[in-house]
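User: Structure please.
Assistant: Input sequence and predicted structure:
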Amino acid sequence: MLRDRRHELILRVLRSEGPVTVETLAERLAASLATIRRDLQKLDEEGLLKRVHGGAMPVEGHDDPFTDVAEVRPAEKDAVALRCAELIQDGETVLLDIGTTAHLVARHLRGRALTVVTSSLPVVETLADDQHVQLVVLGGMLRRDYRSLVGYLTEDNLRQIHADRLVLGTSGIRPTGTVMDTTVVEVPVKRAMIAACGQVVLVADAGKFPGTGMAKVCDATDLDVVITNAPVDPDTGAVLADAGVQVLEV
């Protein structure tokens, strides 16, 4: 497993379970104790966790999980986001998902004559002062840890609109082409977004193959385009090709 991926998973374990031992992390991540100790030292130096004897604990008062995830592979995500923004045509209505890569897409859409629909507060903050973008904010219940809006109000709002494209994020893509997410509460919103758009563009950096996730969002047949920064593994590539999905590598 790549170092950045281990760091992301370590932070997720701390957020969901609190203080954790080196031994537990080594078992969860199938890594050596020495590797985990180096990871914890690095994350402690970056202020993302607090190193304690025998393990680590979350940093009190630390920023939300969205910020943590945004710090993982930022250059790779931005390259994917830029390529995605290049696909979008002026005058379109675009749905932006809540992921950190979708947020980067929003940055590349500033100054464009577009309608952007989103349930992501970071996207709203990025585009709120842009007079060229017509911004539509979906209602719903605030999910504070990821700064997103979820629930039946969000899903109902989505049933009232149609977008030209959806920029969809993911926690992982299985070799079967199944798109996964780590948070069950976000899945109904993602599915409603897919139903509300004409084209689904999945943005997924190399760490998302196979990535993580326990909840199924959709199948490969629901996708139109996949944008990634590394060659897709042969099994996944074959499934995507059979489903007629265009894969763009940056």
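The chain is about 40% helix and 20% strand.
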